[in-house]
Amino acid sequence: MRRALPGAILVALAASAALADPKPAPKPDYVAKGEAARAVSRQVRHHDVSPFAALDELGSLGRAWSSSSFYALRDGAGGHRWVVRRAWGNLSGAGGLAWADSRTCPAVVALLKGMETLTLRPDVPGLGVDDLKAPSTDPGLYMLWSYRAVSEGGGWTMGLGATGDDASPLARWWNAAAPGLKPCWTEQEPG
């Protein structure tokens, strides 16, 4: 013989089912904007040229973000010039878009030469040299992507993706270049 559940139990079960809704909480606006900028950084074109690399930076605890795209272009004389596009935002809702051009900013060339000196290699746990550093407890993240990575000895072009915290070579490279780039940033897109 089946017994009917009292109404209070049915109401409690319905309420707990509503609380167990699997939908995640909406992301704060600044997080959503940062994720959108990272998605765009690898695809946005400048004068019909796609970026050859991008660096995304997420500050500790998600307080700020930036997403930089790197472009190689030909100038009118057949030489090269390079442009950096940087979108940024922070917890307070401030944000913007800035550009730096190697024609007016030597720090862009220095930044890109530094990019070429980054040394990255996989580490196999328990085999060879285990020299991994422990991550910081509140790390910011630096994510580098490039479709023009060159393997040892050159000649092989491949894609590269790397992520590091505030103490990583990525962070040191980017933060060393930042003071030189600071006076170069402009809201005007280079011609």
What can you tell me about this protein's structure?
With 191 residues, this protein is an alpha+beta fold. It has one domain. The chain has helices at residues 7-19, 29-41, 106-116, 169-181, and strands at 53-58, 64-74, 80-90, 95-101, 141-150, 157-164. The chain has a six-stranded antiparallel sheet with strand order 4-3-2-1-5-6, sandwiched between helices. A hairpin with a 6-residue loop joins strand 5 and strand 6. The longest helix has 13 residues, at 7-19. The termini are far apart. Keywords: Signal. Residues 1-20 form the signal peptide.
What is this structure, in a nutshell?
Keywords: Signal. The protein has helices spanning 7-19, 29-41, 106-116, 169-181; strands at 53-58, 64-74, 80-90, 95-101, 141-150, 157-164.
